[in-house]
Amino acid sequence: MIINPFDVAWMYVAFVQGKGGKRRSILVLEDSNNDLSFYPITHQHKRKSPHIQKQYCPIVNWNQIKGLTEPSYIDIVKIFVIS
User: Most buried among 36, 44, 63, 69, by the most CB within 10 A?
Assistant: First the structure.
């Protein structure tokens, strides 16, 4: 499977705090040298504090992206990198 920058893909992502994780949508930034860097995508915007909401970038045409079923946001707090 070829993944290109700015593709939306789905994968299991570990929680930053606590144990476990979940399958979620991600925005691919780069797929090179056997490393994948990405931002997670969330729809949990309204539940967050105003400070956290400022760290989310809305996806304007979210309904045109296969698999996104409600308004979604790119969580730009941290770039994740996995091998």
Answer: 36
The SS3 call for residue 68 is coil
Residue 48 Cα distances to 2, 26, 43, 78, angstroms: 34, 19, 10, 16
Tokens at 28, concatenated: 């691919």
C-alpha span between 58 and 36 (Å, rounded): 22
pLDDT of amino acid 1: 66
How many other β-carbons are positioned within 10 Å of the β-carbon of residue 29?
15
| C-alpha span between 71 and 12 (Å, rounded) | 20
Read off the pTM. Answer: 0.82
- The residue type found at 51 is H
